[in-house]
Specification:
alpha+beta, Chitinase A, domain 3, three-stranded antiparallel β-sheet, 9 strands, globular, disordered N terminus, disordered C terminus
Length: 410
């Protein structure tokens, strides 16, 4: 996330987080009491401490290491935003412990290894990203452990949701017919060559090496080798795990993503299915293969392949999200939460550093003075995503299907 994109959000989050933490927690946020050190303890959840170190690590990841560019007000907002997510995660993790959904150490290891593998990054690159983010292996394991535990808890709770009745599916479809339109467009597969240097093990670190690799791939395609097999071996994009399949792309999106001439060629009814084109987009080289084309918009019915199933899944997922959000709201209300960081802001309204007193941080601490938040997930990437997922709240409102969703399958 770029600094210029998060500043306004951080200022707003400062206001929201203080009000939320000071007025809505299920426990005290009053005067600091007992042995708690307000410079080291950001909050407690049922007596369990959330440290300022964890908050700072979260801000550092959220701002992609640019926390030093934040003003004191923005930094305070970032810290409070991250802390709120950490509090929510701790509340849910404690519920997971009571419901016996905490994963084994073997499950945690397997999840971390999968994340690192799926990232496509080298071990050296992952290690560097973790170091830059102030992320230790122990902290990474703790994040994954809590994420997996919470996911198991949510699965257990939402497992009570029953499949919708046919009448409910039909009512949903009839109320959202405009969303069930397969737009004119194409289905593509791609082999992506990225000239950017992504670290140790990357053999395409500039345009020259990328061009050589691209020529090698094209040569093998012309020799009759299987596109999907080559995509899995050579492509530098997550689509390689699906044999290069990019899914269905509407014509308008196709024109915005790739060269208009490429889009025009693929949309031309005279162009044969299976044709390949080579182009550049977003600084990367693409070998594109036309897999399917729809020459006109098509209104889908409940009897169209996959539509009824997708409506059913949409209803079930929306109900699960609502149930998960409600469960979390109840858990937050029941928890005894003391948000000392928010209380410091309230008690010192003219000193909105939201951090340890000025001058208290060592140079090393200054480098970790801002930190991170579920969702996504890979060594440093895994740490960042685990945090992002941990701090994001379940969506509370049922979602309408995105336009073209039934047709795109992307």
């Amino acid at each position: 996330m770029q600094i210029n994109k998060i500043r306004a959000a951080l200022v707003l989050s400062l206001i929201f987080s203080v009000l939320t933490a000071a007025c809505s927690s299920g426990g005290p946020t009053g005067n600091l009491v007992g042995p708690v050190d307000p410079n080291e303890t950001a909050a407690t959840v049922n007596g369990k401490v959330i440290t300022m170190e964890a908050v700072d690590r979260g801000v550092k990841q959220q701002t992609q290491g640019q926390e030093s560019r934040l003003s004191p007000l923005e930094l305070a907002g970032a810290r409070l935003q991250v802390l709120q997510g950490l509090i929510e995660r701790e509340v849910m993790f404690q519920k997971a412990e009571k419901e016996a959904t905490v994963p084994t150490e073997e499950e945690v290891t397997a999840a971390i290894n999968k994340q690192k593998t799926d990232s496509g990054k080298s071990a050296d690159q992952i290690e560097k990203e973790m170091k830059d983010a102030g992320m230790t292996e122990a902290a990474l394991r703790d994040q994954f452990k809590k994420e997996l535990a919470i996911q198991k808890l949510v699965d257990k709770i939402t497992g009570k949701i029953e499949p919708p009745k046919d009448s409910e599916i039909e009512a949903f479809y009839n109320g959202n017919k405009e969303a069930f339109v397969k737009k004119r467009g194409v289905k593509l597969a791609a082999i992506v060559i990225d000239p950017a240097n992504s670290g140790a093990g990357d053999t395409t670190t500039d345009e020259q090496s990328a061009a050589l690799k691209g020529n090698e791939v094209v040569g093998k395609l012309r020799a009759g080798q299987d596109f999907a097999t080559l995509a899995r071996e050579y492509s530098e994009d997550q689509s390689k795990f699906q044999g290069g399949d990019l899914g269905y792309i509407a014509e308008q999106e196709l024109k915005q993503t790739f060269d208009p001439q490429i889009a025009a060629d693929f949309m031309n009814p005279a162009t044969q299915i299976g044709k390949m084109n080579i182009t550049q987009s977003q600084g990367k080289f693409f070998v594109l293969k036309l897999q399917e084309r729809s020459d006109k918009d098509e209104a889908l019915t409940l009897e169209s392949p996959g539509v009824r199933q997708q409506v059913s899944e949409s209803l079930v997922n929306s109900r699960k999200q609502l149930l998960a959000a409600s469960y979390q709201a109840v858990a937050m209300n029941e928890a005894k939460i003391a948000n000392y960081l928010a209380q410091k802001v309230v008690s010192n309204p003219n000193e909105l550093s939201g951090a340890r007193p000025a001058g208290a941080s060592t140079p090393a601490a200054a480098n970790t003075t801002a930190a991170n938040t579920s969702n996504s997930n890979s060594g440093a990437n895994a740490a960042s995503n685990a945090n992002t997922n941990a701090n994001s709240r379940p969506a509370a409102s049922p979602a309408r299907p995105a336009a073209n969703a039934p047709a795109n399958n992307r």
